[in-house]
Design goal:
Elements lengths: L3 H7 L1 H9 L3 H5 L3 H6 L1 H14 L10 E2 L1 H28 L10 H11 L1 H7 L7 H27 L3 H32 L5 E2 L1
Antiparallel strand pairs: 1-2
Helix pairs in contact: 1-2, 2-9, 5-6, 5-8, 6-7, 6-10, 7-9, 8-9, 9-10
Length: about 200
Amino acid sequence: MFGHIPGLFLNPQAEWQKIAQRSDESIKRLLPFPIVMALLPAIGFYIGTTQYGWTVLGEDVTRITPESAIPLTVLFYAAIMGAVVFIGGMIHWMSSTYDASSFAIKGVVLMGYACTPVFIAGLFAIYPIWWFDLLLATAACGYAIRLVYLGVPPVMKVPEDRGFLYASAIFMMALVYMALMLAATAILWEFIAAPVFIN
């Protein structure tokens, strides 16, 4: 399950081929991968914001109380898993349009492995340096998009040209999810899980 991680960074096309060659039953057994890996950014966020804190301008370090960070961490994990499940569900839902070989868990597994760079980059939130974390997150998201474009044709068993359109539709669904999460974050921070800051 975790053995695919190095290949996704070193030789992603070959690694996607290995995943694509697995049987349907074997692909279903990869489902715990995103469930476990999505914990990395959530744990990194919790430790970083409660133990080390961050500075925006000047020397003042800002932290969040551990009590107020717990619901935020749970919601953060839920948002990450929600993205993997929602977009994975969309991969399966759109499969008939692109004549792809699919079942519900397959889309979630594909999205989970494509998000590997984001999961790993999220661990760096343990020590929050905003400019570095922002650059790292941008690079991780860019590479995750590349992994989607490389992974869709072999895993979903569609030709390259159709796979490009399929991956582009997946990317659009990801943007829709991001917009929904931005709106949900604003509402949740205001009414449900507002952070309590300490200096």
